[in-house]
Amino acid sequence: MGTTLLFFSQLNMCESKEKAFFKLMHGSGKEETSKEAKIRAKEKRNRLSLLVQKLEFHEDTHSSRSGHLAKETRVSPEEAVKWGESFEKLLSHRDGLEAFTRFLKTEFSEENIEFWIACEDFKKSKEPQQIHLKAKAIYEKFIQTDAPQEVNLDFHTKDVITKSITQPTPHCFDAAQSRVYQLMEQDSYTRFLKSDIYLDLIEGRPKRPTNLRRRSRSFTCNEFQDVKSDVAIWL
């Protein structure tokens, strides 16, 4: 009798343990299912976020392209023809300046127009600190030997700038700017008027890909005085 009671007692304990085990497993299953659901929901949100980003990128790209096309077709042939009247008229028009800069990039000589633009901005400076900082930046970028975009200047002009750069004035680059302007007017401008970039504008043709040509060397201002304006040295 005692043995029987002990057997049933042990059996009840086993059943209780089994129930507890199944309850625990069932609960764990629910917890695991909940975790999986959260992971799937997070993945879905991530995919949705990526999709939205792609759509926004597509819209931005489309808007950018549309704006770029509008910019390309903004210049009328009549306006472009006026740029052929003088170099001054070309640079005074925003689109003319942009077209000429694009042309200089095909010749790897855009440093000239960038220096000229930097000088125009520099001359508007009023505060001493601003004058000093901008003068230093222009000198290091365009004037000093082995500058990243060094422009071609005669020794005397460069030497005067080098000696005055510690105490710059709003007009310390005037001589250099004038020489670079003359070089562009007598050399680059004449080739620009014969280029596809300009001819396409005056004939109303759409913009075409431009071919880049590497110069064998650049003219200095002193060298250029003895060279005809329609002569260039190329590889």
CATH superfamily of the domain at 77-203: Regulator of G-protein Signalling 4, domain 2
CATH class of the domain at 77-203: Mainly Alpha
Listing every helix as H and every strand as E from the N terminus to the C terminus, the arrangement reads HHHHHHHHHH
User: What's the β-strand tally?
Assistant: 0
Q: What can be said about the biggest beta sheet?
A: none
Helix content: over 70%
- Overall residue-averaged pLDDT value: 75
CATH topology grouping of the domain at 77-203:
Regulator of G-protein Signalling 4, domain 2
The assigned structural class equals mainly alpha
Low-confidence blocks of residues: 3-8, 51-72, 214-235
CATH architecture heading of the domain at 77-203: Orthogonal Bundle
Q: Can you tell me the overall shape? A: flat
Our measurement of the CA-to-CA distance between the termini, rounded to an integer number of angstroms, reads 115 Å
Q: Indicate the proportion of strand residues.
A: under 5%
Structure, described:
- The protein has about 240 residues and is mainly α.
- The chain has a domain at about 75-205: Regulator of G-protein Signalling 4, domain 2 (Orthogonal Bundle), CATH 1.10.167.10.
- It has ten helices and no strands.
- It has helices at about 1-70, 75-85, 85-90, 95-105, 110-120, 130-145, 155-165, 175-190, 195-200, 220-225.
- Helix 5 (about 110-120) packs antiparallel against helix 6 and helix 5 (about 110-120) crosses helix 8 (about 175-190).
- The termini are far apart.
- About 15% of the residues are buried.
- Residues about 5-10, about 50-70 and about 215-235 have low confidence and may be disordered.
- This is Regulator of G-protein signaling 18.
- Pfam families: RGS (PF00615).
- GO terms for molecular function: GTPase activity.
- Keywords: Signal transduction inhibitor.
